[in-house]
Specification:
This protein has 193 residues and is an alpha+beta fold. It is built from 9 helices and 5 strands; from the N terminus they run βββαββαααααααα. A hairpin with a 3-residue loop joins strand 1 and strand 2.
């Protein structure tokens, strides 16, 4: 898996760029917001957080200047029916913070203004992401994957999602390891049983 790349941008347009990493050019799909930021950058090495989308006929890289963008992209593509291109279209239409606010408040009008997102998909995004976004904000980290892994582990052990989320909120923020978080969550759940 390619999780990040650092190199010089050799060409760019509003939807993609080519990043030269030690003589190898990687085509990376980007959002409109990322394009605006890289337009203003000096020609020096740039670091991209990436997601590799594997399909039968292609390996596509999607890149973000901030890990927060990558994490939100991951949230979007976790929704059935929302693929990487649609997720990138959503991220091109608004900033991550604006999207978070719209989802948290249940405002689907922002999402429906974006190309390819109808009312039904906008409502689906809000329904599926509202709790996940709250979980990320409560953990006070941009590392959604860590909190998500703990939640999934607890659910796979048979705990209801609501109880697992409550236990996750009570875990000491200083604990960084996913396995340690799971252990502490299990202790919390055992005391409330």
């Amino acid at each position: 898996m390619i999780s990040e790349l650092t190199g010089k941008i050799v060409s760019k347009d509003p939807k993609k760029l080519v990043l030269d990493v030690h003589g190898v050019g990687y085509k990376i799909f980007i959002s409109g917001d990322t394009f605006e930021k890289v337009k203003k950058m000096e020609p020096e090495p740039v670091r991209f957080f990436t997601h590799l989308a594997v399909r039968e006929d292609a390996l596509d890289l999607y890149g973000f200047l901030e890990e927060e963008g990558l994490n939100f992209f991951g949230l979007l593509i976790s929704i059935s029916g929302i693929g990487p291109k649609t997720a990138m279209g959503i991220l091109s239409g608004a900033t991550v913070s604006t999207l978070r606010q719209a989802i948290a408040s249940g405002d689907s009008s922002l999402l429906t203004k974006m190309g390819g997102i109808g009312r039904k998909n906008a409502d689906k995004i809000i329904l599926e992401l509202r709790d996940k976004i709250g979980l990320v904000e409560e953990s006070e980290k941009t590392d959604f994957r860590g909190a998500s892994d703990v939640l999934e582990a607890l659910k796979s052990l048979g705990y209801p999602e609501r109880e697992a989320r409550e236990a996750l909120k009570k875990i000491d923020k200083k604990i960084e390891s996913t396995s340690e978080k799971v252990k502490h969550a299990l202790k919390i759940l055992a005391t409330h049983a």
